[in-house]
Every structure is written in structure tokens, then in C-alpha cells.
């Protein structure tokens, strides 16, 4: 398949592509190594978070986690995709405002969305449990409290290392904890 | 190519929004109110619930290198300075606690959250209006900023949350009324001491300057502090 000019109109209908075309995943910005590294950082709360972990603020991992969360909720009978979207957007915007007001160097919104989305992973695990268990009782309450604390601990740790705030960890943790509590409420009730 | 175009469009959109946003909200002034740390928040919460023994209530003033007076010290360095972190968190937590209380009764609906949030904001707005009108009618030169008043009048939500949580955990009864009266009185006392420097600008204490104007202003201050209990009664559920 030879074309006169590599980017002519008809190349959209062919499969030749153009020279120097990067591979698809690299062009979309999905880097599986990074996604795996960041997920393992969230899952291991006792390891120290490095400074440069959020240098590429990709949203592919968080999108995957949010879809998984919605699918697990759907499998347990609650179709709440609209609420997830609404609470997510509202929470990200308000946490972006608070972080910019409280820190010396600001943070742009895609990076806050990325951190908050990656640290949603323990809540995704909780919603996976909600498919098989009934979370309304005592065990469910304990599990949800543990997941909220885990999410809040890892995300406030990431925010404090990325923004270099040293004595405001609990202050960042409180609104982030409220944000994850809303998600947990959606999972349990 | 497409990704670069989308990235450029997003960057231009955000820059446009930020330019117009900064015209309406003064960011550096707001930053001063959010310049808090863990120790300040813990001590301020303790002060709100037990203000009786705290001794110097004046706000510290920063001095520049030449010894002249700049603005007030940020909340990090001065426990008496009002901040906006605790009020914002208190109002958000109050809305969530209202949702929790209605959820326990089984009548939760997301519209109720909007109703409680707007009631809270409306009461704070009404108090600020009342204070400004009172200062205008009594010829008090008003030097504090509106953000200070928002902060002072939103501290009562801490007491309201405390009362609501005790009511949630141990049921309604005489002990939740005791907690309500205690938090109302402590927030009232806190406001009395803090607003003294706003309403009575000549900070000379003592009865030697008891002219009618000063007596009227003191009554105004007492009315503001006493009304806190009334507002709290309407806000707890």
C-alpha cells in the first residue's frame, strides 16, 4: 500500500499509517508500568512515597479504577454511575481549590484527579467485597472504616510529598477523608 | 497530533478561566486565611470548646523590617487569628451530619443536603448583614474584613456538629440539651471576647469610659453573642 503523500485524505481509510508513527499506547499516554507502580504504592502504605511519583499525571489508571468501581456496584445491584461522576467531579474541584489555597506551590487539577483516582483502589476492593458480602452489618462497617482510612492515608501521604507540606497532613486528610466517605456511603447503602 | 491539539485547547481554556476567576476572588487574601497547620487547628478547636481560661485575646501584628505595622499575623503563628479552614470544613461536615441524621431516620434525600447547606449559608449571611448594619447605625468604624466575620460566625458550626454527634450516638435526652447549652455558651463567650476588638475599637478596658455610646456598643456586642444560642437552636436537628 503505497501512497503519494503520507498524510493524504485517503490514508484515513487505509491501514498503512504514516512514517514515524508512535505505537498506539504511547500515543494515548497509557503506560502500564507506571500504572502498576502507582497502584503498588497505594496498596503498600508502609513504603515511603517518592517525590517524583506524580510527575506524569495520567488519568488512565484512575479511569480504569472508577469503571471497575461502577461495575462492582452494578454487580451488587446498585447502578450509581451518575452519582459516582457527580461526587467525583465535585470532590476533585473542591480538593483542587483547597490544595491550591493551602500550599505554597499549587497543583493543577489533572494531578489532583490522578492522585485521588489512584488512591480509590482500596474502595474498589471494598466494592468487590460488596458483591459477595452484605456490608450493612458490623463487619461491613469495620471494613469500610478500614478502607476509608487506607485511602485517606495513602492520598494524604502522596499530597504531602508532592506539595512539600510538612505539618498539614491531617488537614489535607480531613477533606480527602470526607470525599472517600461519600464513595463508601454509596458502596454500603 | 490530535492529542496535542486537545492538550493545547485545555491549557488555553484553563488559562482563560483563571484570568477571569482572579478578577472576582482575591486569591492572596484568601491564602492568608488558609495558612494553617495541625497545631493551630487542634488548639483552636480546644479554644472553641473551652474558652473560659484563655488569656490574651488580641491578634498579633506583623512588623516589617523598619518597624512599621504590616497586616495581621497569619493563623499559623497566632492562635487568635481567624482562619477559614475550620469554618469551611465545619459547614461541609454540618451538611454531611444533617444527611446522616436524616439517613438514620430513614428519610434521606439528596435535596435535603441542599436545604441544610443553603440554610447554613443564609444564617451566616444574615448575621454579617446584621453586624454591618449595627456598626453603621452606631457609627463604629469597621476595620475588619468580611472574611473575618464569615470566619467568626461560622465557628458555631463546630458546636452544632458536636451536639448533633452526641445526639446521634446516645439518643435525644437531657444530656444532649446540656451539651447544646454548654457549646452555645462557650461559642457565645468566644465571640464576645473575639468580636470585642471589632465592635469596640478603643480597646481601653475598665468602667472609666462608660459613656452612653460605649454602653450601647457593649449591649450590641452582648446581643450578637447571645443570639448565637438562638441560631444554634435553629440549626441543630
Outline the structure in words.
The complex is a heterodimer of chains A (189) and B (237). By secondary structure, chain A is mostly helical. Chain A has a domain of 108 residues. In chain A, 65% of the residues lie in helices and 0% in strands. Chain A is built from 8 helices and no strands. Chain A is globular and about 65 Å long. Chain A starts with 23 loop residues before the first helix and ends with a helix. Chain B folds into 2 domains: 33 residues; 168 residues, no CATH class. In chain B, a hairpin with a 5-residue loop joins β1 and β2. In chain B, α4 crosses α5, α7 runs antiparallel to α8 and α8 runs antiparallel to α9. The model of chain B has no long low-confidence stretch (mean pLDDT 83). Chain A: It is a multi-pass membrane protein.
Q: What is the total domain count of chain B?
A: 2
Number of helical segments with 4 or more residues of chain A:
8
Helix content of chain A: 55-70%
Q: What structural class is derived from the secondary structure elements of chain B?
A: mainly alpha
Give the rounded overall mean pLDDT of chain B: 83
How big a fraction of the residues of chain A is strand? under 5%
Q: Roughly how many Å apart are the termini of chain A?
A: 58 Å
Oligomeric assembly: heterodimer
Membrane topology (chain A): Multi-pass membrane protein
GO biological process, one term (chain A): vesicle fusion with Golgi apparatus
Keywords (chain A): Membrane, Transmembrane, Transmembrane helix
Subcellular location (chain A): Golgi apparatus membrane; Membrane
Task: Write the SSE topology.
The complex is a heterodimer of chains A (189) and B (237).
Chain A: H1 24-28, H2 32-43, H3 60-75, H4 81-102, H5 109-118, H6 121-132, H7 138-163, H8 169-188
Helix pairs in contact in A: 3-5, 3-6, 4-5, 4-8, 6-7, 6-8, 7-8
Chain B: H1 2-24, H2 27-33, H3 38-49, E1 61-63, E2 69-72, H4 85-105, H5 110-137, H6 146-154, H7 156-170, H8 174-199, H9 212-235
Antiparallel strand pairs in B: 1-2
Helix pairs in contact in B: 4-5, 4-6, 4-7, 5-6, 5-9, 7-8, 8-9
Amino acid at each position: 500500500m503505497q501512497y503519494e503523500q503520507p498524510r493524504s485524505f485517503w490514508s484515513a481509510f487505509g491501514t498503512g499509517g504514516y512514517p514515524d508513527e508512535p505505537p498506539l499506547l504511547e500515543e494515548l499516554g497509557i503506560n502500564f508500568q507506571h500504572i502498576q507502580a502507582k497502584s503498588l504504592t497505594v496498596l503498600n502504605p508502609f513504603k515511603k512515597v517518592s517525590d517524583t511519583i506524580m510527575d506524569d499525571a495520567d488519568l488512565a489508571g484512575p479511569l480504569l479504577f472508577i469503571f471497575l468501581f461502577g461495575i462492582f456496584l452494578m454487580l451488587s445491584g446498585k447502578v450509581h454511575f451518575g452519582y459516582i461522576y457527580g461526587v467525583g467531579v465535585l470532590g476533585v474541584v473542591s480538593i483542587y481549590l483547597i490544595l491550591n489555597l493551602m500550599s505554597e506551590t499549587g497543583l493543577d487539577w489533572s494531578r489532583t484527579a490522578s492522585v485521588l483516582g489512584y488512591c480509590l483502589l482500596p474502595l474498589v476492593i471494598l466494592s468487590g467485597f460488596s458483591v459477595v458480602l452484605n456490608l450493612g452489618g458490623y463487619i461491613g462497617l469495620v471494613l469500610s472504616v478500614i478502607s476509608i482510612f487506607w485511602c485517606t492515608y495513602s492520598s494524604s501521604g502522596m499530597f504531602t510529598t508532592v506539595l512539600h507540606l510538612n505539618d498539614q497532613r491531617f488537614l489535607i486528610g480531613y477533606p480527602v477523608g470526607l470525599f472517600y466517605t461519600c464513595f463508601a456511603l454509596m458502596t454500603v447503602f | 497530533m490530535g492529542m496535542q491539539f486537545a492538550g493545547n485547547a485545555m491549557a488555553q481554556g484553563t488559562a482563560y478561566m483563571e484570568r477571569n476567576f482572579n478578577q472576582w476572588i482575591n486569591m492572596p487574601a484568601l491564602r492568608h486565611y488558609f495558612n494553617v497547620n495541625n497545631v493551630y487547628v487542634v488548639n483552636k478547636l480546644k479554644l472553641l470548646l473551652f474558652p473560659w481560661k484563655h488569656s490574651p485575646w488580641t491578634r498579633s501584628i506583623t512588623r516589617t523590617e523598619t518597624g512599621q505595622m504590616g497586616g495581621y499575623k497569619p493563623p499559623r503563628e497566632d492562635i487568635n487569628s481567624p482562619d477559614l479552614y475550620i469554618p469551611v470544613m465545619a459547614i461541609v461536615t454540618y451538611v454531611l451530619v444533617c444527611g446522616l441524621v436524616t439517613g438514620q431516620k430513614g428519610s434521606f434525600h439528596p435535596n435535603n443536603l441542599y436545604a441544610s447547606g443553603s440554610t447554613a449559608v443564609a444564617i451566616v449571611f444574615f448575621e454579617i448583614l446584621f453586624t454591618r448594619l449595627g456598626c453603621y447605625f452606631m457609627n463604629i468604624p469597621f476595620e475588619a474584613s468580611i472574611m473575618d466575620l464569615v470566619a467568626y460566625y461560622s465557628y458555631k458550626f463546630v458546636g452544632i456538629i458536636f451536639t448533633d454527634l452526641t445526639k446521634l450516638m446516645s439518643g435525644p435526652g437531657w444530656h444532649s440539651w446540656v451539651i447544646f447549652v454548654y457549646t452555645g455558651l462557650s461559642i457565645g463567650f468566644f465571640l464576645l471576647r473575639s468580636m470585642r476588638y471589632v465592635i469596640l475599637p478603643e480597646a481601653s478596658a475598665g468602667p472609666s469610659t462608660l459613656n452612653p455610646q460605649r454602653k450601647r456598643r457593649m449591649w450590641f456586642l452582648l446581643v450578637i453573642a447571645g443570639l448565637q444560642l438562638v441560631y444554634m437552636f435553629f440549626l441543630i436537628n
